Structures are given as C-alpha cells and as structure tokens.
Amino acid sequence: MNIIGVVKAATFLAISSGLISASAITLAQAPALKLTDIPEADWRILPGDILRARLAEGGTCDALKQEAERGSARAHSLYGGAVSQKICGNFDPDLAITLGRKAAAAGDHRGVLVEVVGLRAKGDHFAANAITERPELRDDATMIAQRADAAYFGYGRTASVADAAPLYRAAAAKGEYRSLLMLAWIAHLGSERAADKQLAENYLRRAASTGWAEGVALYGNFLVEGRLGESRKSEGIPFLRQAATQGSSAGEIGLARALVSGAGGEKNPGQGINMLLALSEKGNSEADYVLGQFYRGDGGFDRQRDRAIFFLKKAAGQEHAAAWRSLHQEYMRPEATQDERAMRFIALERASDLGDSDAANDLGIQWENGTMNWKSPQKALYFYEKAAKKGNGAGAYNVGRFYQYGIEVPRDTVVAERYYKQAAGNGYQLAKTALAQMKSPAAPARQVAANASTQASTSALARPNARGAPTARQIRDALVYEQTYGRVTVADSMGLGTRQADYDAGISRTTFFGITVVQSYDVANPSCILAEKGKFTCRYDLKLVAAGFPYNGPGSHTFEMQGGRWRSPTYLKAIVDAGNRSAAGANNGRNCTVQGFGTAEGASLKDQNGLSC
User: Fold this and answer.
1) Residues 372 and 383 sit within 8 Å (Cβ to Cβ)
2) Does 49 have pLDDT greater than 60?
3) pLDDT tens track for 342-380
4) Mean pLDDT of the chain
5) According to the model, what pLDDT value does residue 593 have?
C-alpha cells in the first residue's frame, strides 16, 4: 500500500478532514441522516467514502446543485466538497473555486478549504498559500495543516520537512487528526530526525483512538504490513475490520488483502477479490491497483497478465502513481508488445510526476546509466533528490553518493553523510555500509562512484565489486553459457568451432523447431556483494539484442564458481521458467517443460497428466 499516496490524496481532495467532535463517529454511522442536518464541524470530518455514499443516495447531488443555484451557502460548501472529491461528477477546479468563494462570502468557512483545494488542483499554489496565511485564519487548525502541506509537498515553495513538522504538530494539537498521520509518516521515514517507529505508532494510535475511520485504517495497515517492526497481523486485522465497517475504503482494501494472503489466520481469497471488485465498480483506483498487483502474481495468485494490465490501466487512468510504475515494469518484460515497450519510460515518468518516489529514483537510475536516451548525471541527481525529498531511502543514498564522490556537485562529505543518515534511518542497508566506509581509513577510491550504478527500487545492490567477485566479462560469459550451453533445448548442426567463436563474441545462438534465435550480450559496471561463500549477487548494466529487439537496462543475478568458471544458476532458472510459461501457453495451458523442444525427443514429451505436448 502506498501510504504517502493515500495521505497526499487526502491532503489534496479530502474536504472531510478537520476538527473531530465526540458526536462525529455516531454521525458517520447514521445511514438515514441527511447531510444538510449535520453540524458544520462534524460534517468536515466525515470520511470521504461515507460522504460519497450519502451524496449518492436519492439524487442528493442534484438536490445540492439546485440548492447551490438558489444561493444556499451551506449547499455551496457541501456541493463544492462533493465536486472536489469527484463525488458529484468529474472534478472541476474552477467550479470548486467558485462554490468555495460563494460559501465563504456567506460566512460558511468550509468554503475556504474548498477554494484552496480548487486552487491547488489548478497549480495556483501562490493564491492557495495566500489564503492559508490570512490573519483571521492563521489559528484555524485546517489552515495550519494546509500550510504544513505546502511546506511538506513543496506547494509553491521549497519542500522542507523541518518547516512542515512543527506546523503538523500545531494542527494536531488543535484536533486536526490528519496531521497525526503525516507526523506518523515523517517519524516512520526518519525524514525529520532518525526513524522512530515507536513515535510513529504513538501518532497512529492517537489518530485511531478517536474512532476516525481513516486513522483506524492506516494504523491497521501499518500493523499488518510490519511497518512498525515485526508484522502484528492479529492486532491489525480488528482495526481494518472496524474501519471497513465505518465505510473506509482503505480499511476494506486492507482487509481484502489480508483475506487474500491469509494474514491474521483467516484466508478467503474469493471474498477478498470480490471486495476489491466491488470497490473497483465504484471507481476506487486503489482497489484497481491492488487487483492489478494480484493478477501480476502477487499474493500467491496465478499470473494473468491481461487482467493485470486491464486493472493497472484503469487505476493509472485515475492518476494512480504506483499503477503507472507497475505498468512500466510490465512494459519492460520480454512479453511486452512493441506498443507497450514504446510506453515503458513514459509510464515511469508519469508515476514520478504523480509523486511516486520509487519511480523518481528509478528515473535517476535510467539517466545515470543512459538507458532512456543518453547519460545525464545532472538529470539523475534531479530525480534522486526528488525521491529523497519524499523520504525514499534509495534516493537519499544516491544523492549522498553523488556528494561523496563529487558527481555533478562539489565533493562534500558532510552533505553526503547527512543523506546517508537519512537513508540509513529509513532502513536502507547500503547507506549504513556507506557510513561505515566513510569512517574507515581504507575507504574506496573515487572510481567506486563510477561502478556503483544505482539500484532500482526493487533491488538492494549498489556497491563496488566485492573482492573475488566476477568481472564484467565473466558475467557476460556466464549469461551466454546458460543461454546456450547450459540448456538441454539446444540442438543444432553447428560445430563447436563456431560455438566458440560465438562464445568469445558474447553471442548465444540457439535453435528451436529449426528456427535459429541469436542473442548478443554486453555487460558493464558490475556491482557485486557476497551472498554466501563462493556466491556473489551482482547487478550490472546489460545491453542485450534478442531476435533483433534491443534491451538496455539493469540486470541482476547470482553467480557461483563451478569447475573453474563462473556460472549463474538463477539466470538459467529464469530462462527455463520463462520457457515453461511460453510452452504452457502454446500447449493450451498444459504444463509441458521446454526441455527437448527442438530436439528429436520433443515429439515424445508429455505433461504432468500424461498428455502429449
């Protein structure tokens, strides 16, 4: 679950945040209650999903619109909030601003927040910030939280956690409980000081203790996902059930994920998927994203690529950042179509634009390695800093690396150490190693920086070759060997002399059903760590041309010494697994192995049920 995305969405769209009164929870659970009868302070804290349900009942949107057209200040603010949350039609920032101003002019101060949200949506942060700074609003909890948001997310100013945190604390002290979630996130990431999971839990527990559905849901998700230490599923599941009962989609989604995976002892994948599908029907992008991830193969699900792409595209169409990043990952896979491959970096850029910090870090990697167009350390640093500002451990580590070795910036070990500490506080192991190396008199030389091609968000390797690790040429030879010699599927009439010439040139030439497939390999910048005695896990820059299709990007596999040569069992397994999937697809889903295809024994192969392949 992308918690910061959820919190930011609440910041941007959830007009329901605000002061909580003792009667608010009762109001949230009263299905027959009319919105126009809810006191102003209580209405402002109703979870967006509950507000959505109320407005959807009995043509309330049309009624509110008609009341607003007749000049009702309360209708202006209610309808403006509904428009801002996409409850009553598509979000129209200009309409939200107009409604908010009319409500505020009539003395309904909820309209001020509606106007701020509309201005933020249009990118007019200067005007939005000016409203939050009005003298008569400076002590308003919601406006204090809005000023904190501007500082944290960089709305119209330089992003600064140091400036945002005190404002969030002031807002929380006045009862603005969404600020507690932001403080929990800051403590969890260690973006203000060293990461403090206990402090994060204290903030989350305070938010949940009010009965506020969104706080209850986030606390439950943090417990189940192990974000506060060891996973405490038995404690988290009841919170998720409570939030789901209150109408929180975050609670429903967390509970659905738990049912699919069996977290907390109860496993019911069918019920969990049905819960997600029901939310998807209502237009919930997070549910679409989670469904897409399941169909990609997460949670023990059988991979169904078409369904995964369908749900991820649906979520991405609603500007779900993580869905765009998942689409990028799918478009990088060998089975991607030509049109999908053309979209792979566009999807990653879109995810970064929407605030996904992993995507920003990955873009930095692409620019540093020259995968997208050309190498640009300057652009790489920009994206690493963008990721670091959002609390991304890998991004902070990479910024620290640039300062430690003077890449695109003056060499500054003090700044490097600060970024390494930020990354280490977020649990990023390589930053802890870098800090230890900085204090060692035998710290690596400047050339380490060139070899330390940075890790993608899905990997944890970004360090120079460990002593005794395979070289770039040895990694390349191992890949060629596993692709060619290491597979029993290889059988053609070529002589060993030609094979050796191919091998020396980094070329694999295999034959299937009389069709020859040529793949050429080039490996550079290996970064390896010792996995266990005699085995190294390495990341490297890979240039691969397979059947005429080029791939330039990161590669990562484990290598071990066998008979005096480096071999890669994990790469061989990946090849065979991919072949098995292709074979099953070509044989109506039967579990035919690829061993023997292209050879005399291929015709006699049978699947696990004895059916001919």
Assistant:
1) no
2) no
3) 888 889 999 998 888 899 999 998 888 877 667 788 889
4) 74
5) 45
C-alpha 82: how far from chain center:
28
**CA–CA dist 562, 576 (Å, integer):** 19
- Region 536-545: mean pLDDT is 84
> Percent of the chain having pLDDT more than 70?
70
Q: How far is CA 603 from the centre of its chain?
A: 45
Q: Which residues, at least 6 apart from 337, have a Cβ–Cβ distance to it below 8 Å?
A: none
What's the CA gap between 266 and 398, in Å, rounded?
41
Strands 515-532 and 507-512, by their bridges, are: antiparallel
Residue 367 dihedral angles phi and psi, to the nearest 5°:
-70, -35
User: Contacts by 584-588 with C-beta closer than 8 Å and gap 24+?
Assistant: 587/613
- One-letter amino acid of 502: D
Phi, psi (deg, nearest 5) at residue 530: -75, 115
DSSP-assigned states of every residue in 505-553 = HTEEEEEETTEEEEEEEEEEEEEEEEEETTEEEEEEEEEEEETTEEEEE
Say which amino acid occupies 160. S
Residue in this structure with the two tokens 């873009």, named with its chain if needed: 363
Question: Can you tell me the distance from the alpha carbon of 382 to that of 390, in angstroms, rounded to the nearest whole number?
Answer: 13
Measured distance CA(273)–CA(282) in Å, rounded: 14
Check whether 150 has a pLDDT greater than 90.
Answer: no
* 127-147 per-position pLDDT tens digit: 888 888 888 888 888 889 989
**CB-CB contact of 81 with 12 (8 Å):** no
Residues across the chain: 613
Give me the torsion for CA of 84, 85, 88, 93, rounded to 10°.
Answer: 20
Helix ranges, 317-426 (H): 321-331, 338-353, 357-369, 377-389, 393-405, 413-425
With 0-12 CB in 10 A as exposed, 13-18 as middle and 19+ as buried, what is 337? exposed
Helical pair 321-331 and 305-316, crossing angle rounded to 10 deg: 140
Please say whether the beta carbons of 318 and 288 come within 8 A: yes
| Rg of the Cα atoms in the chain | 27
**Residue 427, CA distances (Å) to 184, 204, 423, 594 in order:** 16, 20, 7, 41
Span 257-284, pLDDT tens digits: 888 877 666 778 888 889 899 888 888 8
CA–CA distance, 52 with 249 (Å, rounded to integer): 11
- Output 234 or 611, whichever has higher pLDDT: 234
- The DSSP code for 559 is E
Q: Is the CB of residue 470 less than 8 Å from the CB of residue 559?
A: yes
pTM: 0.56
Report whether 459 contacts 554 (CB < 8 A).
Answer: yes
Per-residue pLDDT tens for 556-609? 888 998 877 888 888 888 777 666 665 555 555 554 444 433 333 333 445 445
DSSP state of 300: G
Alpha-carbon gap, residue 252 to 233, rounded angstroms: 15
